[in-house]
Every structure is written in structure tokens, then in C-alpha cells.
From TrEMBL:
Hydrolase recorded as keyword: yes
Annotated EC: 3.4.19.3
HAMAP family xrefs: Pyrrolid_peptidase (MF_00417)
Quaternary structure (record): Homotetramer.
InterPro entries from the UniProt entry: Peptidase_C15, Peptidase_C15-like, Peptidase_C15-like_sf, PGP-I_bact-type, PGPEP1_Cys_AS, PGPEP1_Glu_AS
Protein name: Pyrrolidone-carboxylate peptidase
Gene this protein is translated from: pcp
GO MF: pyroglutamyl-peptidase activity
Family, as annotated: Belongs to the peptidase C15 family.
Location of this chain's protein in the cell: Cytoplasm
Active site: 78, 141, 165
Reaction equation(s) it catalyzes: Release of an N-terminal pyroglutamyl group from a polypeptide, the second amino acid generally not being Pro
Principal place of residence: cytoplasm
Reported function: Removes 5-oxoproline from various penultimate amino acid residues except L-proline.
Length: 215
């Protein structure tokens, strides 16, 4: 199995992004799967072009996109992406789409093919906080998750794809009192556990654990 794992470059004035920092520290092999690492731009549209090119070149079985979710305390595999760009801040190219569809002919939403409940369970088994998320937001994280699902629907039907958010790093919260964070080493450990679950659940679907929320 080959898994393409992507991480965004720094954005919003931050000197680093834990997403690409953690991706770059992943092992080259996890549970027997080959890990291909790719930095992608925090830019609406362009990030999808970069990932599509990598899919054509690498022919991965799975694409797992990683992004930063400042304010979250856990690693959160995402269950669904919606067909909406609504930027709270401009991207790294200065674009700030407001209430715009990502693909005019795309579905209103796409669900991941990855075993998000098994991923969350594996991360918790590694001693780290994790839960399944049902909102990837409306910024570039949701954008790339949706775009890869659209590529799957229109060009690469054999592909399985999904997204996972990770928290701030401790260095990012020194001026953000009360904000949760997770070390880079823990990010890597949690992502490795999640990828291991993807490999081990290959062909079996997800596990039936309780991951729902009340709000």
C-alpha cells in the first residue's frame, strides 16, 4: 500500500505549521505501507492542483491530508467535507472567497472513505486525545478535503481519501493564553497510529464505536 500524506505550509503569519512539520517527521514506512510526504500551499485552488499532480505521479492507494486546527485539543479525523469556501482570513495568495461553492457540479458534501473511528481509537490507545470531527471548517483544510473527494468522484474512483486536523504546537500558544497544544513528537506519534489503523482496516471498513456528539 502507498499512502500520500500532505501537510500545509505556514499561514496566517505563523512562522511554522505543525501539519507539514509533523508530516516531514513521519517514518517512510508505517505498518508496511510506503509513506509519500508532500508539502502543499495554503491557497484555495492551487493546493488541489499540487495534490492532483502527486496522485498522477505517485499513484497512491490513500491520500491523507493533515492541517492545523488552532483551538482544538485533540487530533481529529474528519468525517465529511462540504462544498463551500468561506474564508475567515485570506489564504497565502491573498484570496478570501466568501460563500462560494468549491465545485459547481460537485456534491453538497462528500464523506471520507477512511476508518475515522478506528483512527481515533488508535490515537487514544497511543495515549493521545482524539475524536471524530464532523466539520472540517470552511477554509483551505475543508477545501482540500473536498477537492480530493471530488477528484475521486470524477477521476480516481479507486482512491481512498480523508483529512485529519492537529492542534497548535506549544510554541504557538505562548501568546495565546488558555489555548491547547500538542508537541510535535506527539503529533507524529498520533499520526503514525492513525495511519497504522488505516492500513490494518484496509478492506474491512470502520469499527462500530460511539463517536457521535450532542452538539
Amino acid at each position: 500500500m502507498k499512502i500520500l500524506v500532505t501537510g500545509f505550509d505556514p499561514f496566517g503569519g505563523e512562522p511554522m505549521n505543525p501539519a507539514i512539520a509533523a508530516v516531514n517527521q513521519l517514518p517512510d514506512k508505517i505498518a508496511g505501507a510506503t509513506i509519500v510526504k508532500l508539502e502543499i500551499p495554503t491557497v484555495f485552488g492551487k493546493c488541489a492542483t499540487v495534490v492532483r499532480r502527486a496522485i498522477l505521479t505517485e499513484q497512491p492507494d490513500v491520500v491523507l491530508n493533515i492541517g492545523q486546527a488552532g483551538g482544538r485539543a485533540a487530533l481529529t479525523p474528519e468525517r465529511v467535507a462540504i462544498n463551500l469556501d468561506d474564508g475567515r482570513i485570506p489564504d497565502n495568495a491573498g484570496q478570501q472567497p466568501i460563500d462560494q461553492p468549491i465545485q459547481a457540479d460537485g456534491a453538497a458534501a462528500y464523506f471520507t472513505q477512511l476508518p475515522v473511528k478506528a483512527m481515533a481509537r488508535a490515537i487514544r490507545a497511543a495515549g493521545l486525545p482524539s475524536s471524530v470531527s464532523t466539520t472540517a471548517g470552511t477554509y483551505v483544510c475543508n477545501h482540500i478535503m473536498y477537492q480530493v473527494q471530488y477528484l475521486r468522484a470524477t477521476e480516481f474512483p479507486q482512491l481512498r481519501a480523508g483529512f485529519m486536523h492537529i492542534p497548535f504546537l506549544p510554541s504557538q500558544v505562548t501568546t495565546r493564553p488558555g489555548q491547547p497544544s500538542l508537541s510535535l513528537a506527539d503529533d507524529v506519534r498520533g499520526m503514525t497510529a492513525a495511519i497504522t489503523a488505516i492500513v490494518e482496516r484496509d478492506g474491512q471498513g470502520d469499527v462500530a464505536t460511539i463517536e457521535g456528539t450532542l452538539n
